[in-house]
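Good day; I would like, with your permission, to put a structural problem before you. A protein sequence and the structure tokens that stand for its backbone fold form the material at issue. The record follows directly beneath this note:
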Amino acid sequence: MNRFFFFLAATLALVACQPNEHEEQVESNNRIHQLDSLGWEWESRSIVDFSKAAYSISTDEVRLHFYGWELDEDSLISVTFPDNTDQYGRVWLTYRMCGWNKGPAEWDMTTMIKIYDRANDQWLEFVRAITPYGGSFGATWEKQFCIDVTEFLPLLKGKTDFRIFYCGWDATDTRAHAMQMTFSFFDEKNRYGEAIGRQKVYDSTLPNDGNNGYRAWAYGVKGWSIEDESRLGNRTIDIPAGTKHVLLRVCITGHGQDAYNGGGTFPNRTPQKAKNCAEFDSNFYKIFINDEQQKEQGLIWELNNGANNYKQAGTYTYSRAGWGPGKPCNVQHWLIKGIPAEGEKLTLNFDLDEYISPCTKPNDAYVACYYVMADAFFYK
């Protein structure tokens, strides 16, 4: 059994045995447990039988090109799902990477797709991916990946809007990266329980004075700490009545290369010198719940090696942190345990290792930065 489905099986067993929130006794520094650290699977290796899907729908192929930096410049597409999808308990996304006309464009670029949450008038990141170095691929090249997106099931009803951000200028009429999404719904019980709400926790794409202009928070720049309250500071989680499980969905990727001069340092590490942070330096995020550090911590590391890699042009063989060309970005799912009674306080805080950047402004060229997205989903 591969690691993804080992975690999936463990998740089902864990969630199935969760007691009532008022009966569970949990140590205060052991209130969160990571369910998986990858969040996607190769379609060719998946054990999911998509022929048994009760309902499926696909988008057209979307040619990826630079739409603009501002949120309202994102490309907008819509998918019309059935008006009622309550009968389904699981939904999988098949994410297809491909090329336009004669093949994919040349560079490894970030693609972010958000889904519109009508009930809360907000956009939640649905999937993030890095395009491959596509210069060596022809017109028929494609790769397909499977992602369990069941937490978004309540949003997949009727006409649903998606917005696409692509951060590169490499598209031409002859060659461009392209993508297509297929949604497969299954008649089975929701492994998390009955969904009763969701809440945005962290979102680096929103306007912020520490944002570098590329949808990311600068890292280590004096005066623009990523740990500022407006960025990775404390967030209060508003627990709906009846909540038994809180699922935290996290996607963090490192970008930039420390101004190419090797001047960045991690003062609390040995050795201290950075290796082109934040694409090449592995990093952790420490998790605090109600101001207490938890035993488990998240590893920001793109598994850009072995079975998770494939031959392409460019520097795809390099061992990198938070950056893996030609596939979806890692999504980590966490289960928060010991849910407080209604009206009690639950705060969340992420801390990264201290870093001192050679850059002096958050929008300096090649500044180290992190795209950060974290959302909480509530179940009873």
User: Anything to note?
Assistant: The radius of gyration is 20 Å. Confidence is low (pLDDT under 50) at residues 1-23.
